[in-house]
Amino acid sequence: MAMLTHRGRRLHYETLGSGQPVVLIHGFSNFGLSWMQQLPALVNNGYQAIVQDLYGHGLSGQATQITSVEDLADDIHALLEHLGVGPAVLCGLSLGGMIALQYALAHPQRTRGLVIANSRATFAEPHLKEAVASWIAMFEQPGGATKRFEAAWPMLLNEAFRNSPSGAAVYEIWAALAARTEGSSLANVARGMTSFDVRAQLGAIEVPTLVVSGQHDKLFPPAHSMEVADGIRGARFVTIPSAAHISCLDSAAEFNQLLLGLLNESS
Questions:
Q1: Which residue, 19, 35, 117, 225, could crosslink 24 as a Cys pair with Cβ 3.0–4.6 Å?
Q2: Are residues 261 and 210 in contact, defined by beta-carbon separation less than 8 angstroms?
Q3: pLDDT tens digits along 1-45
Q4: pTM for the whole thing?
């Protein structure tokens, strides 16, 4: 198990394969193994997959203070500097997509391409702040991380995947993760998300960009992802008909085809 300490934060990460680096950035309250269906595809096609558990998530340290999207993007930069790898393609889902956008804006010379999945360009709108306030209230209850996971589960993945053996296995893994996660840690990350807004800066991104949405995504519907694509010159927008919010898991074959296509374009 590989660990990096950056600004006093313990960050868990793993690398697999060799070749052009691809950074996979998971979503809020998930962890790095939410990319389990992408890792074989990347390694078998000659890429180096780099996966980090975000601060406050998974096997990384618990977030003891408000943690912004900018902070999380800085952690990714520190990891790539630590690994000594060249410009990378970043693939982020949900919060991970927000982090990938922030990274690309802060480090354009270190960004080779972007896949922004089931994400959005801002989390600073008033109704979203109200939603985050309700999440924080749940997180701060006893067993709050588990309660939030159980409430969100039906919206995260499509019904076919949730009812499959793979879905049952993912549920057990994430339930165990939620049980060991401090609700206050996720609350601090949620608080930091509410300042994120890069809508006015998207035009500065010039690398090949693919924006992916799920037709059945109730958390970040396709219109929110389309706003990202509309702001980046030349970005391609694709909706996966079968996908819900975590499209990389419930629609892995379609997602992998799109990801590998972007990687070929940015080579």
A1: 35
A2: yes
A3: 799 999 999 999 999 999 999 999 999 999 998 999 999 999 999
A4: 0.97
